[in-house]
Design a protein that fits this description.
Elements lengths: L11 E5 L7 H11 L4 E5 L3 H13 L9 E4 L2 E4 L1 H12 L7 H25 L5 H19 L15 H12 L10 H12 L1 H10 L1
Helix pairs in contact: 1-3, 1-6, 1-8, 4-5, 4-6
GO molecular function: glutathione transferase activity
Organism: Basidiobolus meristosporus CBS 931.73
Keywords: Transferase
Length: 208
């Protein structure tokens, strides 16, 4: 099982102080499953975040001034999907076994990233919540359900647990749909498989 030795040190994660939701939680879930020890700085959505954002820009750690940011071995890295891909490469896990499999889970991950952007827009009242719930949200769930059917699950790549599974599980969690998946058998299988992973079962029991 991968340990911190594969990363060469102890990463430090910077993200908003918003509990078990948001992009940064995907990284925490991967760390939990892999048994990676990490430090974190939870940023409250106040003047502290504004100051941190400006420091990210001025220092060059992340000119975009966004989080999550991951510090590792004296360097700062940013971007949820790039970070997940990087960690998967370092750990030799959570990714496909062929270029075609990697392409597939990247396609899934890209779709989930677009879904999350819409979720954030609704959360920030930048998009009509009723219209989103009526059309866009059900369509997103249907797409993930179909994508999960490509391989003989429970994960997107069959028995191979990847960062795409984490991303999909987390957006369903953030949408508060985990107990509303009765019409989606593939998503139910994914949910059950993720929650049955020993380290994640322990992590989820502590985070809720």
């Amino acid at each position: 099982m991968p340990t911190n030795s594969a990363l060469g040190g102890t990463p430090k994660l910077y993200y908003f102080d918003i509990g078990a939701s948001g992009r940064g939680e995907n990284l925490r879930v991967l760390f939990a499953d892999a048994g990676i020890q990490y430090d974190q700085k939870n940023l409250p959505l106040n003047e502290e975040w504004v100051a941190f954002k400006e420091d990210l820009k001025k220092s060059g750690k992340n000119p975009a001034g966004t989080v999550p940011v991951l510090e590792l071995n004296g360097e700062s890295h940013f971007g949820t999907l790039p970070l997940l891909r990087y960690l998967a490469a370092k750990l030799g896990a959570y990714k496909g076994k062929t270029p075609e499999e990697d392409l597939f889970i990247d396609s899934v991950s890209d779709f989930v990233a677009d879904w999350r952007s819409s979720w954030v827009a609704v959360f920030l009242n930048e998009k009509d919540k009723a219209a989103y719930a009526q059309k866009e949200l059900p369509n997103n769930v249907e797409v993930i359900e179909k994508l999960l059917g490509k391989y003989d699950g429970p994960y997107f790549l069959g028995d191979n647990f990847t960062y795409a599974d984490i991303l999909a599980y987390q957006i369903v969690h953030d949408e508060e749909l985990l107990d509303k998946l009765q019409k989606y058998p593939n998503l139910v299988r994914l949910k059950d498989a993720v929650e049955a992973r020993p380290r994640l079962a322990e992590y989820f029991s502590q985070r809720e």
